[in-house]
Design goal:
By secondary structure, the protein is mostly beta strands. Helix content is 13%, strand content 36%. The protein has one domain: 2,3-Dihydroxybiphenyl 1,2-Dioxygenase, domain 1 (Roll), CATH 3.10.180.10. A hairpin with a 4-residue loop joins β2 and β3. The chain is globular and about 45 Å long. The two termini are 27 Å apart.
Length: 122
């Protein structure tokens, strides 16, 4: 097994608002994909060499600030996307915090109320 995570999905209520939030965070386009009974947007990822995920609106997908926390790639320095969280309508819960030799982390609430995190080595 290469990775403990294979794929992740972040539930959303307002797809367009969430799409704009994550596009602002990543500075790139979230591509919509066919999804029966709802809407699906893929976050930027290298499908050949990494773990990917997306935002999803549909029956049975409910945003939550409880439960599993997904750590998104914060790039070279998570300060860059983290600085965009509040301007994009989210809320920083934990500022950039050192985790020693494992880099840095930060937690935030997205526009849908999901508790999500960022990780980077710088």
């Amino acid at each position: 097994m290469t990775n403990a995570i294979n794929w992740f999905e972040i539930p959303v209520n307002d797809f367009d608002r969430a799409k704009k939030f994550y596009e602002t965070l990543y500075g790139g386009e979230i591509f919509e994909m066919p999804f029966p009974g709802g809407r699906y947007g893929m976050l930027p990822c290298d499908m050949q060499n990494g773990v990917g995920g997306g935002i999803v609106k549909g029956e049975g997908f409910e945003p939550s600030d409880k439960g599993t926390v997904v750590y998104l790639n914060g790039g070279d320095d998570l300060s860059t996307p983290l600085a965009k969280v509040e301007a994009a309508g989210g809320k920083v819960l934990m500022p950039k915090t050192s985790i020693g030799e494992n880099g840095f982390m930060a937690h935030f609430l997205d526009t849908e109320g999901n508790h999500v995190a960022l990780h980077s080595m710088k």
